[in-house]
Amino acid sequence: MAKQFNIENFIINRPVRATLFSKGTNEVLFSADQLTDSSLECSGTQVYVTDGIGARVAAFDREKNATFTASSAFMNLGLMAAQLGSDKEVADETSKIIAPMFELIEVKDVTKITLSETPATEPKYIYSTHTDKSKDKTYTLGAAASATEFAVNGKEITLPTDAFQLGDMVAVWYERETTQAVSIKNTAQKFSKGGRFVLEVLGCDICDQNTEYYAYLVFENSKLDNNVTLNFTNEGTHQFTVNAMQDYCSADNELFRIIVCK
Question: N or C end of the chain, less CB within 10 A?
Answer without folding.
Answer: N
